[in-house]
Amino acid sequence: MKYDIVIIGSGLGGLECGYILSKKGLKVCVLERANLLGGCLQSFHRGNCLFDTGFHYVGGLDEGQSLNRLFKYFNLMNLDWVKMDNNFDDVCIDGKIYPFVSGHENFRETLSSYFPHQKENLKKYTDFLQNVGINTFDSFKPHSKNNFYSSSLFAQSAHEFLNSTITDPILRDVLAGTSLKMELSEQLPLYVFTQINDSFIQSAWRLQGGGFQIAESLANSIIEMGGEVRKNAAVTRLIETNGRITSVEINNNEYIDCDWVISNAHPIHTLSLIPEESILRKVYRNRINRMENTFGVFTANIKLKSGSIKYKNKNLYAYQNADLWKYTEGKTDRALVNFYRPQNGDSCDCLDILTPMNWSEVEAWSDKPIGKRGEDYVAMKNRKTSECIKLVSHYIPELEEAVERAYTSTPLSYKNYTNTANGSAYGIRKDFNSPMLTILPPKTPIPNLLMTGQNLNLHGILGVSMTSFFTCAEIVGMDTLIKDLNINE
Ligand SMILES: Cc1cc2nc3c(=O)[nH]c(=O)nc-3n(C[C@H](O)[C@H](O)[C@H](O)COP(=O)(O)OP(=O)(O)OC[C@H]3O[C@@H](n4cnc5c(N)ncnc54)[C@H](O)[C@@H]3O)c2cc1C
């Protein structure tokens, strides 16, 4: 069997590329190594709770907003999206709680009531973010001054922007405070910070019933359009003939031919699939292999005692004595709490606590199989869980008593389940000092091998969805995709 396109990986990026190209009439085959589709969109059951792994909430799904347009295209707006409260996030720093409120004007008015002397600066801040959001689709246009790949915001520092816009250091921390959904570091490009923060200020949404439904819906659409989506199909080698990939090896024993390959897998892994003697020059390989990755995440998925905690239709970001822009290895001074919406009533049955964790904190156990990593690994996870609960208890005092059971995952789990390098949560670390070296285009030196997904330029549901179009544009052209998205409207 020969396909027009073979896609390695069924993460959001792989499935969206499969959808776009199937819609264009191409014959697509998506190959996923795991026995579940979705990569970071996977959900799992424990103790009557359905927990999400990566994805927890999205921004910009209201009519006319950025993700809404993309999700309409992908036929994902018919899923059970639930709008979060107007006060969608609480940033809790050293005992004080600051609400994040939807809508740019409401957002700045609310925070101005806590920081009246920063009212003007908050206007500058929200105007700047709003402008980036407004230009989201202009960035798709190859000749626009806002074109994504020539955006100067990748070469500017988010940290520096906050310092120069906001003069109150506490407000600076508050504005950066919902940013566990990225890695805050002094290298962070302004584009990543503003695009992600802006989309959540537009409006914030949870998906009732688990993130896996996004993957399921995209996969079903691909199949309906004549494509194929296979699980337990690890790509083990890319076979090159005369400078092009002509065939893909699956599970070391099966081969399929194709005209194009799109890899949704981590770029380091993608290159490991190409034999050393290929046309790929060593300098390119070395460049990719040397790229750093963001931190990973430790998650405590918690089942709560019945009736012990009220459901909150918002997230809570908790910090105690933290330097927000610098994660110190081993220190549990920051966490995101995500509440799962109950089927009935107002009592919360389960929640997640997420906190950063580096690969070096788990590397000692990386060669041991799942479930056999030993008592010291279990002890480390138990200690971390207690620290997370203690941190969050500053803001939810009833939590310590309410925990019935905690299930945990570490960067080792992400490495196992999504094959991401070093269990990294958000993939390759982008650096405003060297955007040309840390932001990858979809094209590779092999003309019919493209890449997609969070590692290229912008992580998260919005970023990966945008990137899917940039990747597919290399095959079908951006003009036709711009028409399909009605971007000129
Ligand atoms: C803890 C956490 C919380 C997050 N929360 C949010 C959130 O609330 N909102 C938001 O917008 N974003 C969030 N994100 C980010 C978002 O989930 C990711 O950016 C996005 O889902 C990544 O998609 P992807 O397609 O790039 O890659 P992935 O999801 O990593 O998918 C890659 C896929 O490729 C497969 N693969 C790898 N190698 C092979 C091979 N050889 N053969 C076949 N298949 C292969 C993997 O198994 C995997 O399925 C979160 C991420 C994490 C980790």
What does this structure look like?
Strand 7 (about 85-95) and strand 8 (about 95-100) form a beta hairpin. Among the domains are: about 1-55 and about 210-290 and about 435-485, FAD/NAD(P)-binding domain; about 295-355 and about 365-410, no CATH class. Helices cover about 35% and strands about 20% of the residues. It has helices at about 10-25, 65-75, 105-115, 120-135, 160-165, 170-175, 190-200, 210-225, 265-270, 280-290, 375-395, 400, 410-420, 435-440, 460-475, 480-485; strands spanning about 1-10, 30, 45, 50, 60, 80-85, 85-95, 95-100, 205, 230, 235-240, 245-250, 255-265, 295-305, 315-320, 335-340, 350-355, 405-410, 450. The mean pLDDT is about 95. With about 500 residues, the protein is an alpha/beta fold. Strands 1, 2, 10, 11, 12, 13 and 19 form a seven-stranded mixed beta sheet that branches. It has a seven-stranded mixed beta sheet with strand order 8-7-15-16-17-14-18. Strands 5-9-6 form a three-stranded antiparallel beta sheet. It contains 16 helices and 19 strands. The relative contact order is 0.18. The structure holds flavin-adenine dinucleotide. Flavin-adenine dinucleotide binds near residues 10, 57, 234, 453 and 459.
